[in-house]
Specification:
heterodimer, A: about 375 residues, mainly alpha, Fusion Protein Consisting Of Minor Coat Protein, Glycine Rich Linker, Tola, And A His Tag, Chain: A, Domain 2, rod-shaped, B: about 450 residues, alpha+beta, Rossmann fold, Neuraminidase, 2 domains, 6-stranded mixed beta sheet, 4-stranded antiparallel beta sheet, 4 helices, 31 strands, about 15% helix, globular
Chain lengths: ~375, ~450
């Protein structure tokens, strides 16, 4: 019979289906585990009244220390004088890459300043500051210009003697010049409090530069300095090393161009230098006795250098005229008389304040009497 | 190439070491190669204290000795440059002209210069000798030990000469005490003032009248030798230049051209020429008259007023006043004439320029902002300085040494009077010259022989 095979096929399919279902039921949870369910979190809440809620809202409207958003770039405000800024909090030290070396000549800000950090937010384009043209100034019509630049600093060294200024504790009294008061300018000088000269001071004339022959002679004299001045003696030079000898001679020449170096060595100071305070004391003591009230108008234009030798007690033993720069011989004589009188009077009226422990220094002094600041033209 | 470097390298190293050694050892020593140099740039300007010991009577001098020492002291103190220490403060007494000077005693009273002297009289002859001592130097001032002799009538001149020498030796400038001043002596009410010429010592003593009050006289000027005087006289009814011999008082008018007026005369430095203003047809120009030949030459030719000429000491230039720009200003022209170059540049009106005997300054009168000034400027017009200021100052005249100016000062008001004043060119020592009455138009003589 032909019907029996068809039943067997249906039974097989049904059996396989039921077997698969039975296996899925048995093994399904093991093979396909489901995600665990969320854990329920339990919190406690409290109830509040509407009044309490309003109060809470009101408190929330005040500024809070919450970080501010990055400031938008604004036109730089006008600097205003402000009191000293409060000390800024110390910045948090963070490992940052070493900064690049900054040239020392670049200007640096006085204080550390915060730079505005770039914001990712879309920001409005800042309004450009209004460009204000500088107020034009009236140029004087008679102003004159020059096509050739004027050097700001003279390239010629001054020939004027320079007194070395050394730090000192002592304060030298400020010298006050004499202001010429006439009947015609009495009101003016009274109004000025007699603090300013009514005329500009005349610039002292620069002494003429020594002729090349004189310089050469001074160099030669320096090279041939006495043997008791070992420092003046050139270092021993081998006959074959002319370059060394030339360099020495050049170095000597540069340092012996001082016109005051022709002292022959006998008056060289040996002790420690006078301090600025000591120099000021000497200047004040002698200046107070330097009376030009009876000097001629020519003498008031005469600058002289007087060499004074002193005894260990500070008494002048010799006063000689060393240099002079004046219009006439009579004026020089008058100026020298006034200077000598000043030294003698100063030594007798209280003495010249010279430090005893530096006698080797002030055994001989060159005093420059320069009346240009007092001149009455 | 390497061999060259090997040869040069030792020399270069040696050279560098040698130079460094030289600079390090030589420079510090050379920096001390002269004694310390200290600049004294500020002194004091005050009268120098001096002592005038009473002059000693060495026989017959009587009051002359006392009076001469008084005049010497007055001369020196009158300059404003000296302060005489009162005699009762003297510690030492000079009893003999040749006795040793106790310098310590004079130092003790801070006398910087001591003047000692002696006077003797025999008949009408008087002898004055003196010494000026530098007290702090303990020596006699060089050239300040002299003796003068003359008649007793000239005792004041001898005192002035003593003072001139002392002044000159201390200041380095020439003296001016032995000189005279000619001026216009005034009397009567202001609207009817009588004027006559007078001459006096520089200090107002010994006044002598040269003219009477019959006619107005103006602007007298001494000749370079002091023996003649030029002035403007209204004796003819018009201003005329008149030349007077001081010794004989003889006088004559110069350049009497009809229809002209002449005024503002002044001698040339050699005394042979007179420059003056001549007004003709309403125009005033400067002319020069040769006193020997009588030749007249016109120096300026402008429609403006040119007047007040004054020679430079070397006679090469003339400074004068002109209003060609509308206001009176000061100009300088060659002595031969010309347009001249203006030198006054300030505001105001300038006039009566006078060249200094030294040649370095020009004194002038300036009117500005309602006040008058006496001032000085350089001969190129620079460095103008006003020395005085008042209601009316005018007409400066130089002392023989070019250090002092004398001028006229007039007070305001109906009762205002003119007087003579002097001032140092520094602007100090402004003082009135004593005169018997009102006085104006001073002119200083040269130093007397």
């Amino acid at each position: 019979m032909r019907v029996q095979p068809r039943v067997q096929t249906g039974t097989l399919v049904s059996g396989l289906g039921h077997a698969g279902l039975i296996l899925w039921v048995i093994l399904g949870d093991w093979l396909f585990a489901s995600a665990p369910a969320d854990q329920v979190i339990v919190t406690q809440v409290s109830m509040m009244t509407s009044a309490e809620f309003d109060a809470l809202q009101a408190a929330a409207s005040t500024p809070t220390p919450s970080p501010e958003p990055a400031p938008k770039p604004q036109p730089r405000p006008e600097p205003k004088p402000e009191p000293a800024p409060a000390p800024a909090p110390e910045p948090v030290v963070e490992p940052t890459p070493a900064p690049e070396p900054v040239p020392e000549d670049l200007p640096t800000a006085a204080e550390e300043q915060l730079l505005p950090s770039p914001s990712q937010e879309e920001q409005a384009v800042p309004d450009a500051a209004e460009i204000v043209a500088p107020v034009p100034t009236d140029v004087p019509e008679d102003a004159q210009t020059s096509d050739t630049p004027t050097p700001a600093v003279s390239d010629q060294p001054t020939a004027e003697p320079v007194v070395p200024q050394e730090p000192t504790e002592a304060t030298v009294a400020e010298a006050t010049g004499t202001v010429l008061e006439t009947e015609a300018n009495r009101d003016q000088t009274e109004a000025l409090g007699m603090t300013a000269s009514i005329r500009p001071r005349a610039k002292p004339e620069r002494p003429p530069e020594p002729a090349p022959e004189d310089v050469a002679a001074e160099v030669a004299a320096a090279v041939d300095a006495p043997q008791d001045q070992p420092a003046d003696e050139p270092a021993a030079a081998a006959p074959t090393e002319d370059a060394v000898a030339d360099a020495l001679a050049e170095a000597l020449a540069e340092d012996t161009s001082d016109p005051t170096s022709d002292t022959g060595g006998s008056d060289l100071p040996q002790g420690p230098p006078l301090t600025a305070g000591e120099v000021g004391d000497v200047r004040s003591a002698i200046g107070n006795k330097w009376n030009l009230g009876s000097a001629s108008t020519d003498a008031l234009r005469t600058t002289i250098v007087v060499r004074v030798s002193f005894s260990p007690e500070g008494q002048p033993t010799d006063i000689e005229l060393l240099e002079s720069d004046g219009p006439t011989e009579a004026a020089t004589s008058t100026a020298f008389s006034a200077a000598r009188r000043a030294v003698l009077r100063a030594s007798q009226d209280g003495g010249i304040p010279l430090p005893a422990d530096k006698y080797d220094t002030w055994r001989v002094l060159d005093l420059v009497f320069d009346p240009n600041g007092m001149r009455l033209r | 190439m390497r061999s060259v470097f090997r040869a040069i390298l030792p020399v270069g190293v040696t050279l560098a070491l040698a130079v460094g050694l030289a600079l390090s050892t030589v420079a510090p020593v050379l920096a001390q190669n002269a004694p310390p140099r200290i600049v004294i740039g500020s002194g004091v300007i005050e009268p120098m204290p001096i002592a005038i010991a009473g002059f000693i009577d060495e026989g017959g001098a009587g009051d002359y000795a006392r009076e001469i020492s008084r005049v010497v002291q007055s001369d020196l103190e009158g300059t404003g440059l000296f302060r005489a220490i009162p005699e009762d403060a003297h510690i030492s007494r000079v009893t003999s002209f040749d006795s040793t000077v106790a310098y310590e005693d004079w130092k003790a009273i801070n006398a910087q210069v001591l003047v000692t002297g002696a006077v003797s009289v025999s008949g009408d002859r008087i002898t004055v000798k003196f010494r000026a001592h530098d007290v702090f130097n303990g020596t006699t001032l060089e050239g300040a030990a002299l003796q003068f002799a003359g008649t007793t009538q000239g005792w004041r001149r001898m005192a002035h000469k003593v003072a001139d020498v002392v002044y000159s030796k201390i200041t380095g400038e020439g003296g001016y005490f032995d000189s005279r001043v000619v001026f216009v002596s005034e009397s009567g009410p202001k609207n009817e003032r009588l004027k006559r010429l007078a001459v006096m010592d520089y200090d107002g003593a010994n006044v002598q009248y040269l003219t009477d009050s019959a006619s107005i006289v103006l602007a007298p000027r001494f000749s370079p030798t002091g023996d003649r005087i030029l002035y403007t006289s209204y004796e003819s009814g018009f201003p005329r230049i008149t030349l007077m011999d001081v010794g004989s008082l003889d006088r004559r008018s110069l350049d009497e051209q009809p229809g002209t007026m002449t005024f503002a005369p002044r001698f040339s430095p050699d005394g042979g020429t007179v420059v003056f203003s001549l007004a003709r047809g309403g125009n005033t120009d400067i002319y020069a008259l040769n006193l020997s030949s009588g030749g007249l030459s016109q120096l300026t030719n402008a429609p403006s007023i040119e007047t007040a000429p004054s020679f430079s000491p070397d006679g090469s230039q003339i400074v004068f006043e002109s209003d060609r720009t509308g206001t009176p200003q000061i100009y300088v022209m060659p002595a031969s004439g010309g347009e001249g170059q203006r030198i006054s540049g300030g505001q105001g009106r300038y006039g009566t320029p006078v060249w200094s005997p030294r040649g370095d300054l020009i004194a002038f009168t300036k009117q500005n902002a309602g006040r008058f000034h006496i001032g000085v400027m350089r001969t190129d017009g620079s460095e103008e300085r006003l020395l005085t200021a008042s209601f009316l100052d005018e007409g400066p005249t130089w002392a023989p040494n070019g250090r002092v100016l004398m001028f006229t000062r007039e007070t305001s008001g109906a009762g205002g009077q003119a007087s003579l004043w002097s001032v140092d060119i520094t602007g100090r020592n402004l003082k009135q010259i004593p005169t018997e009455g009102p006085a104006s138009d001073p002119a200083w003589s040269p130093l007397l022989p």
